[in-house]
């Protein structure tokens, strides 16, 4: 059962929203239900998870008001990321950080042409993110990682990579992307989320998890539920994500170390340096 053993300390990746929020013009999905912060907190309580990190959903573009209100309502328990345009100034980023924002999400999984990070507005934007004590939360296709991760790392910004790096079904592409993740981890500013494993074959999730654990241990890994499982609502429950996590990382001591990584990174930033 999902309740057996120690619960994760932090759900490092979930989306919260209501039907009243306007969708982005190019939203790839349009959920017709609410999964508000109260519903997510109820799930966390049900499974004994103490803390959570809201991942900004690209479905709503840069509509961050709901996330910011949720963070302000429970600053001890919650952190979050936002999606903002690259022209966003440092004062705005710092004000969001004061409310519990820990990162800026770059949702580039469905972007055909990635921007030139060496040119403005991106060069200045990434510098302002780093100067504000925030990380970049990156969602991008695995084929992009071998060249995108070094370019982001060169800016000096911390990186949190979503969904195992979105590993490809193609073995060569997947192996090259995981190699790139390992190199980025070695450079000292990158973490990877074991999140949304239900969106890929178990064997692929297990392969990438095994390589990352062997290469870096738990010190650069995080776990997230990806609730409410957009496009998989009918076949995935919150409990299933915990069961899957325990299959991927069966050692309780390793999972406890991943907990410490998440707590340090999101809730006690100084101790993660």
From TrEMBL:
Alphabetical list of Pfam families matching this protein: Amidohydro_2 (PF04909)
Family annotation (InterPro entries): Amidohydro-rel, Aro_Compnd_Degr_Hydrolases, Metal_Hydrolase
Domain Amidohydrolase-related intervals: 10-258
Matches recorded under PANTHER family: BARREL METAL-DEPENDENT HYDROLASE, PUTATIVE (AFU_ORTHOLOGUE AFUA_1G16240)-RELATED
Protein name in UniProt: Amidohydrolase family protein
């Amino acid at each position: 059962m999902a309740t057996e053993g120690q619960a994760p300390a932090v759900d490092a990746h979930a989306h919260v929203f209501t039907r009243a929020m306007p969708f982005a013009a190019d939203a790839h999905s349009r959920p017709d239900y609410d999964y508000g912060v109260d519903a997510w907190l109820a799930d966390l309580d049900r499974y004994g998870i103490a803390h959570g990190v809201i991942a900004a959903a690209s479905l709503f573009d840069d509509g961050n008001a709901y996330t910011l209100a949720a963070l302000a309502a429970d600053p001890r328990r919650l952190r979050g990321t936002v999606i903002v345009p690259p022209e966003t100034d440092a004062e705005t980023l710092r004000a969001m950080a004061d409310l519990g924002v820990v990162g800026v999400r770059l949702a580039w999984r469905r972007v055909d042409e990635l921007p030139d990070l060496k040119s403005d507005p991106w060069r200045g934007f990434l510098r302002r993110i780093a100067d504000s004590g925030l990380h970049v939360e990156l969602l991008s296709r695995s084929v992009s990682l071998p060249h995108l991760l070094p370019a982001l790392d060169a800016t000096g910004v911390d990186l949190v990579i979503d969904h195992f790096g979105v590993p490809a079904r193609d073995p060569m592409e997947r192996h090259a992307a995981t190699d790139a993740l390992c190199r980025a981890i070695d450079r000292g500013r990158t973490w990877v989320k074991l999140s949304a494993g239900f969106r890929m074959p178990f064997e692929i999730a297990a392969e990438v998890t095994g390589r990352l654990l062997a290469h870096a241990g738990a010190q650069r890994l995080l776990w997230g539920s990806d609730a409410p499982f957009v496009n998989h609502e009918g076949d995935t429950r919150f409990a299933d994500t915990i069961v899957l996590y325990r299959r991927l990382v069966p050692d309780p001591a390793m999972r406890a170390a991943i907990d410490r990584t998440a707590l340090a990174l999101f809730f006690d930033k100084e101790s993660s340096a």
